[in-house]
């Protein structure tokens, strides 16, 4: 499997290459890039330097165009695709249908990878993108389970890429996991977060409680204006475990990072060709540490699937740079949707 690493600048590119990346994804310093943080990403000149550096090491360079073109500003996105073709980049990562069509029509030799932002999560969707735009790879949404990824792998429609490590949002690709967890009904199939049939209000003295499937998600005064209840906007009080005398504060979710080290054999069996490390906004030191761990893990798996084991040292290294020093396999090992 390919180890695909992030880079927000040339220093991160060098870190990733030295640490063992097979491929690196980068973005321009403009609106074509969903990770457009100040001081990060690449001008066209810097991008050319990065691509030359990556290619000299015999590795792959992908340009991330993971935003949707703004009306009247499409030329900026088209120019980014032209630039990727001129630099002979190994692929562009795109979600916007118009950009896929432009790339297909004007640069048919430029490989297209479907961005996770397209949220293509079933065989028919992948087949559509392949037939219409000849995509070679799809980055799968993080809402899929390993079982679902394996099912897509058996279809062999396009190459599959999954997120292996990094930040994990409570909502992804337009689907509210919290609502799904509370109600048992996915917003993707139910039409919206907080399906109305699960919503209930009840007066409690001078207050009005808002419940979603019997879970209290908000409490307000009887005269307070209230919007439609959704889980992510609920108010949850939590006491501090380390400061028992502190005033309880609102708490939504403890920070955590996605980590799939334990699932590598299953992902390999599913036919996943690329493991993506999240974090173009991260430092070169972060890129170095994560890449080194995953290089060892993939090499160990490649050497022998049956003897593959997650090393304690890998977990310790990743825990240092995980959000809240906590990792989770996320939806990959989840049985509810």
Q: Ends: how far apart?
A: 27 Å
Radius of gyration: 22 Å
Write down the overall geometry.
globular
Number of strands: 17
**Secondary-structure element string:** EHEHEHEHEHEHEEEHHEEEEEEHEHHE
Describe this structure in words.
The protein has about 325 residues and is α/β, with parallel strands linked by helices. Helices cover about 35% and strands about 20% of the residues. It has eleven helices and 17 strands. The strands form four sheets. It has an eight-stranded parallel beta barrel, surrounded by seven helices. A three-stranded antiparallel sheet has the order 10-11-12, with no helix packed on it. β8 and β9 (about 175) form a beta hairpin. α3 (about 75-85) packs across α4 (about 95-105) and α10 packs antiparallel against α11.
């Amino acid at each position: 499997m390919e180890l695909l690493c992030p880079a927000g600048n040339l220093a991160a590119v060098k870190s990733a290459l030295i640490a063992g990346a097979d491929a690196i994804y980068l973005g321009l310093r403009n609106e074509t890039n969903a990770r457009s943080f100040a001081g990060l990403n690449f001008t066209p000149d810097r991008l050319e330097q990065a691509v030359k550096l990556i290619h000299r090491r015999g590795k792959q360079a992908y340009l991330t165009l993971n935003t949707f073109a703004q009306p009247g500003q499409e030329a900026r996105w088209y120019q980014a695709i032209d630039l990727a073709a001129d630099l002979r980049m190994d692929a562009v990562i795109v979600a916007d249908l118009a950009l896929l069509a432009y790339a297909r029509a004007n640069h048919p030799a430029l490989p297209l990878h479907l961005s996770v932002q397209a949220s293509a999560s079933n065989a028919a969707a992948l087949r559509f993108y392949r037939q219409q735009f000849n995509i070679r790879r799809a980055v799968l949404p993080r809402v899929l389970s390993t079982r679902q990824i394996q099912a897509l792998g058996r279809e062999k429609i396009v190459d599959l890429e999954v997120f292996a490590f990094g930040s994990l949002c409570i909502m992804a690709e337009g689907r509210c996991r919290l609502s799904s967890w509370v109600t048992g009904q996915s917003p993707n199939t139910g039409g919206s977060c907080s399906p109305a049939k699960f919503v209930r209000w009840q007066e409690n003295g001078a207050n009005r409680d808002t419940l979603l499937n019997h879970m209290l998600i908000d409490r307000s005064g009887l005269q307070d204006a209230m919007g439609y209840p959704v889980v992510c906007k609920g108010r949850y009080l939590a006491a501090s475990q380390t400061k028992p005398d502190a005033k309880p504060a609102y708490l939504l979710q403890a920070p955590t990072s996605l980590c799939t080290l334990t699932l590598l054999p299953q992902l390999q069996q599913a036919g996943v060709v690329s493991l993506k490390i999240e974090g173009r906004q991260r430092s070169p030191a972060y890129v170095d540490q994560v890449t080194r761990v995953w290089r060892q893990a993939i090499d160990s798996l490649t050497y022998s699937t049956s003897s593959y084991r997650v090393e304690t040292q890998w977990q310790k290294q990743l825990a240092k740079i995980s959000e809240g020093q906590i990792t989770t396999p996320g939806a990959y090992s989840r049985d509810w949707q």
